[in-house]
Amino acid sequence: MPRNKYPEETVQKILDAALHLFLEKGYEQTTILDIVENMGGMTRGAFYHHFKSKEEVLDALGDKLFLDNNPFEKLKQQTDLTGLEKLKYFMQQSSEDTDSRKISIMSVQALQSPAFLKKFIEDNRDIIAPSYQEIIEEGVKDGSIQTTHPKLLSQLLAFLTNFWTLPTIYPSSEEESIERLVFIKEITDKLGVPILDDEIVSSIIENAAEIDIE
């Protein structure tokens, strides 16, 4: 068999097929065979040449959707917004119904995989928290955020918004999840970073059932 001269095209076909199937059938209901059958005539060998598992595909897909539509890069272009307004804008965008958000919700199911959980933790530590810190430091400079510990605050926000709300890590009923979200709003309000207004909280609550993992 001739060597594939364009491996990035194969990867793209795998990701395109996976995205279509994940959105149509759901992550748990989609099998590797399903993905292979939607790769335009490519073989299972082509799939396993690039990915070892369905979890790896989901991870790569999430990374690609994030990088293709990086919210933090978009925020850098919003020069008319204060640091606090940028944080609120990010929270609002994160709650909107997009393909990227749907894949993020599906990723919650894969956190039961130790390797996937490790990657999730590293991404939050190395990407999300530093991005929060950059915006918080900007907010300190423009006066919209009052804190003397921007690094610690960014790490706390990453934990509160990306770990404490996950039912796979902190199991909870729907009522407890709503109570936790309201409490996060109280915490961030008292810390001087009121990033969750009533509209955002309502939007998250309305979609809470989507991440209810049995």
Concise description?
The chain is mainly alpha-helical and 214 residues long.
Can you put this structure into words, describing what you see?
- The chain is globular.
- The model has no long low-confidence stretch (mean pLDDT 84).
- 68% of the residues lie in helices and 0% in strands.
- The protein contains 11 helices and no strands.
- InterPro entries: Homeodomain-like_sf, HTH-type_Tx_Regulator, HTH_TetR, Tet_transcr_reg_TetR-rel_C_sf.
- This is TetR family transcriptional regulator.
- Residues 32-51 bind DNA.
- GO terms for molecular function: DNA binding.
SSE-based structural type: mainly alpha
Fraction of residues in H or I helices: 55-70%
Q: Report the portion of residues in β strands.
A: under 5%
Shape: globular
| Poorly predicted parts | none
CATH class of the largest domain: Mainly Alpha
| Average pLDDT metric | 84
Structure summary, number of beta strands: 0
CATH fold-type name of the largest domain = Tetracycline Repressor, domain 2
CATH architecture of the largest domain: Orthogonal Bundle
Topology as H/E string? HHHHHHHHHHH
Keywords for this structure?
214 residues, mainly alpha, Arc Repressor Mutant, subunit A, Tetracycline Repressor, domain 2, globular
Outline the fold blueprint.
Blueprint (H helix, E strand, L loop, with lengths): L6 H19 L6 H6 L6 H7 L3 H15 L2 H6 L6 H12 L4 H12 L3 H29 L7 H13 L11 H17 L7 H9 L8
Helix pairs in contact: 1-4, 4-7, 6-8, 8-9
